[in-house]
Structures are given as C-alpha cells and as structure tokens.
Amino acid sequence: SEDIKSLKVIATSASVISFKKSKAQQHGFDDFLPKPYSIADVVNVLSKLLPHQLNARSSSKGNIAKQQNRVLSEDDLIKFNIELKGLAEKNDLLKKQQPMEEVSYFIKELDRVSNEFEITELNDYSKKLNSAMDNFDVGLMLSTINEFSSLKSKLQNIFKEKE
Fold first, then answer.
1. Which of 30, 36, 38, 34 lies closest to 6 in space, CA to CA?
2. Residue spans of alpha helices (H) in the chain
3. How far apart are CA 48 and CA 55, in angstroms?
4. What is the spatial distance between Cα 152 and Cα 75, in angstroms, rounded to a whole number?
5. Backbone angles phi, psi at 12, to 5 degrees
6. Is 158 exposed, middle or buried (0-12, 13-18, 19+ CB in 10 A)?
7. Orientation of helix 100-117 relative to helix 120-134, angle to 10°
8. N or C: which end of the chain has fewer CB within 10 A?
9. What is the mean pLDDT of the chain?
10. Most distant CA pair in the chain: distance in Å?
11. Given CA atoms 113, 106, 51, 48 in this order, what sign does their dihedral have?
12. What number is the average pLDDT over the span 126-145?
C-alpha cells in the first residue's frame, strides 16, 4: 500500500565496526544514525526525511478572535492567572528537557488558553513554537521555550493595568 511505501525507516547501530549510511541504504533503510545519538541528531535526520508542509496541529487552531483591548472579568482574570501559572510550570519543565510529545502538549495547552481567553500574544507565541517544531528547528524551539517567562510577565502587566 502507499502508506507503507511512504514509511521512513532509520537504521541505528552501536557497532564498533563502521556501518555506513550507504550500507544502510543498500539494505532498504532511508538513513542511518550511529549510537549514541541525541535528540538533535534524530531531529536532523527526520527533518531530511519528513515533509514539512503537513501540519495537523495548525488545522486545530480554527478562527481565533483577535481582540487587542480584551478586558477580563474578575472571575476570568483569576482563571487566566491560574492557567498562566500552569503554563509557566509546564514551560519550566520543558527548559530542562524537550521531549517532542511534551512540546506538542504544551502547544495544545497554549492554544486552548489563548482561545478561551482570546489572548493574541499567547496565540502568536504558540504559532512561533509550533513553526519551530514543524521545521525541526531545535535552536528556535529552545529559544522560544526560553522566551515564555518574559511573555508571562508581559501578560501579567497588561492585565494588571486593565483591572
């Protein structure tokens, strides 16, 4: 079937004998990673093998209301601050390690909160992080993860002024 033909297979080996990429390709593998390998090594290989134009996550964003002068009710402000604190905790964990499924989950949480409270800045941040992931740009992904603290402070200041 076409699905199986498009499946990418990467060979790995910890052998001290040189197992070259050309040998892996002779045996039907799409690429080769010598052990030990890092997440960055895997991302680099995947970025060569996988199509970048497919983005299932972005289709779930839908139409997001962009209200620049959004004023939150007292109850919404309390809820938003709780959500923001939860996002900050998840972001702190991502700073220590960045498993792709955790970054993806963090993006979904950002989207949920930005949609619920109609926060443009969170939506823009989510798009930037999502784009870094989709393009397998580890450097941009890490720098974007590190930017969350300043975004959190900015959002807290915006909503303090509007109280």
1. 30
2. 2-5, 21-26, 39-49, 56-59, 74-96, 100-117, 120-134, 138-161
3. 16
4. 19
5. -135, 150
6. middle
7. 160
8. N
9. 76
10. 67
11. positive
12. 87
Amino acid type, 16? V
Torsion of CA 69, 63, 103, 13, to 10 degrees: -150
143, two tokens: 């720098």
Residue 112, token pair as written in the block: 């949920």
According to the model, what pLDDT value does residue 70 have? 59
DSSP states of 91-110 as a string? HHHHHH---HHHHHHHHHHH
Q: What percent of the chain has a predicted confidence (pLDDT) above 70?
A: 77
Quote the pTM value: 0.56
How far separated are the first and last CA of the chain, in Å rounded?
Answer: 59
Both tokens of 48, joined, read 């060569």
Residue type at 159? F
**24-63: string of b/e by CB count within 10 Å (b at 16+)?**
beeeebebbbeeeeeeeeebebeeeeeeeeeeeeeeebee
CB within 8 Å of 88: residues ≥ 6 apart: 148, 149, 152
125 C-beta neighbours (distance < 10 Å), count = 21
As a whole number of angstroms, the distance between CA 48 and CA 11 comes to 15
| pLDDT top residue among 87 and 102 | 87
